[in-house]
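User: Some background: our group keeps a shared notebook of sequences we're curious about, and every so often someone picks one and asks for a predicted structure to add to the entry. Today it's my turn. The entry only has the sequence so far, pasted here. Could you supply the structure so I can complete it?
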Amino acid sequence: MTLTPGRAPPNPRATSSSGPVSGSWCAQPYVAGPRYINGPVAVVGPNDRIRIKYELQADGVHWIQSATNLATGKVITQLQSDSGDHQKGVGTAIECNQNCQPTVSDHTYVDWEVRLSKADPAFRNTFGVNQGATYEGVTSEQNGQVWKISKIFIPKMA
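Assistant: Of course. Here's the predicted structure to add to the notebook entry:
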């Protein structure tokens, strides 16, 4: 999926080697579940287009989550974890980490795609949104093994 984050709230954690980056976001891969694993934090600008990828490795246990800046092709943050069968779903969140405010502009995810290890024609029933978020353009391929959402919209919350 590709994220265009929009204007950021004040963010004390978004820093570069030269200090705080005004108007920026933090991107951080993590695993939630029986144990939390946090990956490295990367700085994302308000107009950056970021590809977010969750990839189950061939061993069926390890996952690689990465965020890539589409303009530069550079992977800006990545986490490999052994969450294995603990990870029962994929999601995304815009969260407040510390001394910050809710989102102050709209966020859009496009070209969201999930490839399941086996077909599940009812996978669409697992989709959920709240707080005014919406999605559109849901399709499935290969009898429900590949699912796509053309657009996920998250409105400003400030």
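Suggested note for the entry: Residues 39 and 79 are 5 Å apart (CA to CA). The first strand starts at residue 2 and ends at 4.
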